[in-house]
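Minimal example, chain plus EVA.
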Amino acid sequence: MEQSLLYPVRNDARDYTLLDGMWKMRFDPEVLGEKNEWQNGLPDAFSMPVPASFADLFTEKEKREYCGDFWYETKFFLDEDRSTRVILRFSGVTHRADVYINGVKAGSHEGGFTPFALDISDLVNYGARNLLSVRVNNELNETSIPCGSVKTHMDGRKTAAPYFDFYNYSGIQRSVHLMRIPKESIRDYDTSFTLENNDADITYRVYTDGEHPVIAELFDRDGQKVALCEGKSGVLHVQNARLWEVRDAYLYSLVFRIVDEAGNNIDKYPAKIGIRTVEVKGNKILLNGKEIYLKGYGRHEDFEVVGRQFIPALAKRDFELMKWTNANCFRTSHYPYDEHWYQMADEEGFLIIDEVPAVGMMRSLMNFAAAGAGGKDTRFFTADTVPQLQANHRNALEEMIIRDKNHPSVIAFSIFNEPETTYKEAHDYFKPLFDFARELDPQKRPLTGALLVNSTPGKDTCAELCDIVALNRYYGWYIMGGPDLPEAEMAFRKEMDQWALICKDKPLIFTEFGADTYAAEHKLPSVMWSQEYQNEYYEMNFRVMDDYDFVQGELVWNFADFQTTEGIMRLNGNKKGIFTRNRQPKDAAFLLKKRWEQK
Ligand code: EVA
């Protein structure tokens, strides 16, 4: 990792300006931008907010569905101060970007859901205005994660053909910070915890790019200093530590400082940390040494008009709804979310399974359905694209773990969603990625990955890589729905009996199960798509899960209805939400609320 991914802060050593606002934008279907020197000024542009997913802002279909290159431009002023480094930090540009400062290329990034930072100190004009241009591309292919392809229509138009079930929202979808940080600075830090009786040890390591000493100080919520340690690594001992617990989130402030000979600060970075441990023991998941059962949701970053943009008020509503249903966990299906989600979860005491965008690893427009229909496999992991795909996957994993490793809310990393896992090449593909993640995570959190319907004991090759087995299962929906619900229950139990043999000493959680439900539909007796059926579906699934003691979590699919690409399988989007897309409860919300109150 060349640049530090630390979240921007303002204090006496660091500062930033948020470049969010109205930028210029222009599509570049013929890829002429660079040749025509758009990096020196974007002609005939329209205005576009940053951050934003551009798709649903437009009224014309070709613009909403636009796939290819597109350019953004803004200007910023920089004062005369040359004593700091100037860093441009993008929190997420989907799916790839080339960045130019005053017409000169400053850097590139592949991957739409993790941040990247560029040192532009030598490219900027001090005491003057600067031109910032970004060429973005939102095409999918079999080396990008998520995976997909591009369809070229007869009139030459290109549209995205995702191998996954969510809309390919894109653009500069997250904030852009212009940071000023000291030339000798804190690049990163690791924390991990051990608990003994009422005390805790915080083992830390700070990475800097200079030789000056580092001081680490820990403050409690009232601002009282409770521990101090000198050195780039060390152990802070906390007496009577207040632990970070589910829905009782106590956060300490861990302040790192690089100091000069006179004791003055060269750099300072304040980290919010929660003291907690996570481990897997036998078939249980332990948080602070105590068993925890995961209750909650697979989600999306998705809302009307704004697409994937982070809206603080909406996130607040979502946390209130999740709390109302007595949930304690969510999975960032199917990509790392905006950093604010993790900050809020840290404060609220929510658990997160953090997922890398490794989704669509099967050649099909709707892989979940194709596999359900016949256990189809497309030999995805035998293609020539695999080495490049794996390199991109590894980078995304690295960026996600580095970005999120110090959040107390993050209790596990998910390395895939529903790839083909039924042959050896899949195992060969994933094994080094699991090894890499294990090495990278200072807290050695459990690793997992969501297994597709046909990844069953005996066929699957990847569950053995996981510390927590995670299943996406749709018994009673894609498999034997409606009048076949009793048969679905039998088939589900049959599969669970097989997992019982594997999960003697491994926990198993459900990362997806759910039924499409149209919020306006009621029917007695039930039919598929009605509110009544969603309840019956969940009751059946819970009945089965409750009979197997190695089941340690249930994350329903999905928190809310969400946008997908068009097709006969979807009614203007996926309707498996427990809440509607505008965040009102379906009947199943009340069922979950009651169950999770007791669970
Ligand atoms: C579904 N099933 O069919 C979901 C998808 C999801 O939205 C899956 O992991 O297996 C996928 O993305 O509703």
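The chain has three domains: 15-182, 186-276, 284-598. The mean pLDDT is 96.
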